[in-house]
Amino acid sequence: MLLQHYRGGEAITTLISVGRGAEAPAPSRIPGDQEKGLRIAAARSPALSWYLDLLGNMKKALLAVIALAVGASLLLLALSSATALSLDREVRVIGAETLVGVKAENPHGIRRITATIEQEGRTFKVFEATHPARRFFFLGKSEPPQTVNFIAGTKTAQGLRDGKARLMIEAVGNDLRGHTARIDIPVEVNTQPPRVVADGFQHYINQGGAELVTFKVSGYWTEAGVRVGPYTFRSFPMPGRPENERFSLFAFPWDVDANTVPVVYARNPSGAEATAQFWFKVFPKKFRTRDLELSDAFLEKVVQQIDPSGSGDLLERFLRINRDMRRQNNQTLADLRFKTEERFLWKGPFLRYGKTESLFADTRNYIYRGKAVDRQTHLGFDLADVQQAPVRAANDGKVVWAADLGIYGNTVVIDHGYGLQSIYGHLSEIAVKPGAMVKKGEQIGRSGATGLAGGDHVHFSMQVDGVQVTPVEWWDEHWIQDRILSKLPS
Ligand SMILES: [Zn+2]
Known about the structure:
This protein is α+β, with helices and mostly antiparallel strands. The protein has helices at residues 2-7, 10-18, 32-42, 46-79, 296-306, 314-335, 477-484; strands at residues 84-87, 93-94, 98-105, 110-119, 122-130, 146-152, 163-173, 180-189, 195-198, 203-206, 210-218, 223-228, 231-234, 236-237, 245-251, 263-267, 273-276, 280-283, 289-294, 355-358, 362-368, 371-378, 381-384, 390-392, 397-404, 410-415, 420-427, 429-430, 437-438, 443-446, 458-464, 467-469. The N and C termini lie far apart (89 Å). The relative contact order is 0.09. Zinc ion binds at residues 378, 380, 382, 459.
């Protein structure tokens, strides 16, 4: 088979070129005419005949070596693997310095990654990384995906202009075949930076509370809002004003250092960002710390109701609920911010229910048999009245959650528009369905002790764009007027 390849002459060229050229030794053979002449002479001389045999054997050996080399190359080719290439995040716009993240995957490693931008027939190389080539000794390798981040943009690609272009990325596998994967996508080069200017109001902010800021944004921007430490809050166009005249209802989260400076920001997909400060004063709050005794009866009740099929001892199961489930439930609540109406659904102060049993952002030390076993922050107010008392909507809004929610038990969440939402937990009964519009004071359920609750009460909380805040402010008509409404066009 392989011999035929050899005799076929052309076939071997094809194979060798597939095998990336020079590695396979080039075949050499004795020209046919000379061979024929020698055979005639051999009939006369034993020495010559021995010599011819030797030549014949050498030829066979040579053929065997070539066959082996070609066979091994074919095998290595067959064992080479494909390269997978993907972008870490979408790239639609390239600015002055746009961060591009690429993941390249080949179990035999990556020999080369290159990135270029092409515009009107001109090519700009923006990135190249190479590793020493490994063509034969790659078997048994299992290299993890390789992630590279590089900057693409007019700052390094000089001559690149605002307008349409293509971003091309290539990755070559590090084995014999050197399989190349490509990404070729259209991009927009846009170097106009966003600009943002905040209002001239005074912003008095309670740590753990909310505030509103208005601002104007211009240039090329696609996202704008407020940033407080690691938190960001969306903005919306002011009612009746153009898209670039915006406001953001934001929180100064209870767990952000009181010295943090909140800023308004605007950014675009090229990674360009502008920020602006506004006048503010933060009132730091001392949040309380409380010990909470855990009885076996309480653990039993909670574990049986919330996670009846869990494994481990009682305390272990409780701690899982108190930590992991609490985190998940809070995430579910935070994600409800995407189910908000872009209009004010509420009017006037929010209703307060029952009497206060615990305050917002109390730190709780959980004590079991005299030992502290956990510490969590209680985000909300526990409000108690008579058992199974009617629970009413604190303000007009739309129901966005009406179901069990782990530690919060039967829970209702009402959206009041622009990311402001109220939360009612531990209900014994839910009287509304998701999607329903409710009026302030309308009954939405009854108080109870479902979820992580020792006795009948309502866990009441408010959140601003997914961050829980103290509801006290929203119970106060003056605060609402001064801090929220006075900054918006009437
Ligand atoms: Zn509570």
